[in-house]
Specification:
Number of helices: 19
Helix content: 40-55%
Distance between the termini: 29 Å
Order of helices and strands: HEHHEHEHHEHEHHHHHHHEHHHEEEHH
Structural class: alpha/beta
Number of strands: 9
Radius of gyration: 24 Å
Shape: globular
Largest sheet: 4 strands, mixed
Strand order of the largest sheet: 2-3-1-4
């Protein structure tokens, strides 16, 4: 990453770098810089306490002393109080855009590199909107992003373990809705959410997770995900706070279910827990491990630790099959034929029972809220390796030979 930014200066160009990752600044570390607590930063500009010129630091003499080029850097504050202030109060994104223009004009920049938060933030969208060129540096098998609704299926499994099948089914149904995932609808006959994979059902399922308080309940969810993936997980705080601040539709769902006694009156704690579990940080490998654990009967195939009682594995994967891809679940079952769960963050986790787990990540979504490229990858895998649960034809490639490297699937 540093090479992308520094190389043009070695060729005599004038380069600006702005760290707009305000929730978790860190690009200064790539330059081996120790930011002083008193140093002016992008935060001070956004709050109107300094001009963009005053918070810009010339690193040319430090990093490229013998070059004819120039390197200017605008850091974000690393002070906890400043980060908390940004998360709590925000700022005017138009001011940031104006600052970019002033930087280019004042320092006669040939290039302006904007380092953004690796998620769906306004800084990221602004940068994409105004950039002539987008450089995406990402290892989807290593880079964490928010799990969003992918996590819902596995919390459903924990609710079954906590309460049993009969009680959970009295609170949440298992029928497809035919509606969008965020539709405010309940079963007219039972007043239950239709299934645990849409927002109403996911909230009701989250309410069933046991614990003395919100902290203990969240810990149990995070511990559960560690059993599935084999590593510890945490919450993406900016995503959680954004979900909490804008989740009024979900609050409306909660009150509707409360009206029919389908959910407890522990409103804020349960909603916070729901927003938090949708903000758990995962990567593409985690998505594959989640699915592989279900495919292996609820036992992590690497650590050999049980993540889900074997009696409830069928409950989770059958509801994933019928409802996991929202109101596109019918088309998914027809074309892919695997239990799966998607999320609006761009992830898909798909289960080939007693075979493999598949995890994909690609943010562009179709109108149903599912990953466009993720669906295409799963369609190709299902067709070429005969993974469709109802496939009767000879597959193009032998899965076991391909995994072991003995097959002829070099073009995959």
């Amino acid at each position: 990453m540093v090479g992308v930014q520094v190389n043009p200066t070695l060729q005599g160009y004038r380069v600006g770098v702005v760290d707009t990752d305000l929730p978790s600044p860190g690009i200064h570390n790539l330059f081996n810089l120790e930011l002083l607590q008193t140093q002016k930063t992008l935060n001070h500009y956004l709050w109107g306490e300094s001009s963009i010129i005053e918070v810009t630091h010339d690193l040319s003499e430090i990093l490229i002393p013998d070059s004819q080029g120039k390197l200017f850097f605008v850091p974000s504050s690393i002070k906890p109080d400043d980060i908390a202030r940004v998360l709590q109060n925000g700022y005017n994104v138009k001011v940031m855009n104006q600052g970019f223009k002033e930087l280019v004009k004042e320092f006669k920049l040939d290039y302006l590199f904007i380092d953004t938060y690796p998620g769906l933030s306004k800084e990221t969208f602004l940068s994409i909107a105004i950039s002539l060129l987008l450089i995406l540096i990402l290892r989807p098998d290593k880079q964490d992003y928010q799990g969003t609704a992918v996590t819902i299926a596995f919390v459903f499994g924990l609710a079954l373990e906590d309460n049993g099948r009969e009680y959970v089914n009295s609170r949440v149904g298992v029928e497809p809705t035919g509606e969008a995932f965020n539709a405010i609808v309940l079963d007219k006959e039972t007043n239950r959410p239709y299934n645990p994979m849409v927002n109403t059902g996911a909230i009701a399922t989250t309410d069933l997770i046991r614990g003395q308080n919100g902290t203990e309940r969240l810990k149990r969810i995070l511990d559960m995900f560690q059993r599935y993936t084999g590593r510890k997980h945490d919450i993406d705080l900016p995503v959680f706070l954004s979900e909490k601040a804008t989740g009024n539709v979900n609050r409306a769902m909660y009150y509707l279910m409360l009206n029919f006694n389908m959910i407890s009156d522990n409103i804020e704690e349960t909603l916070d827990l729901y927003f938090q579990q949708c903000s758990i940080r995962v990567n593409a490998r985690d998505l594959a491990m989640l699915a592989a654990t279900l495919a292996n009967g609820g036992v992590n195939p690497v650590t050999k630790e049980r993540a889900l009682d074997e009696h409830y594995v069928q409950d989770v994967i059958i509801v994933m099959m019928s409802c996991g891809m929202y109101d596109a679940s019918g088309q998914w079952t027809y074309s892919v034929g695997l239990p799966a769960k998607s999320g609006v963050g761009g992830g898909i986790t798909a289960v080939a029972p007693k075979s493999i787990g598949i995890g994909t990540f690609s943010p562009p979504l179709d109108p149903k809220g599912n990953s466009l490229r993720g669906i295409k990858v799963c369609e190709d895998l299902s067709r070429d390796f005969g993974l469709h649960l109802f496939n009767m034809a000879e597959p193009k490639y032998n899965l076991q030979e391909w995994i072991s490297g003995d097959g002829d699937g070099e073009d995959w």
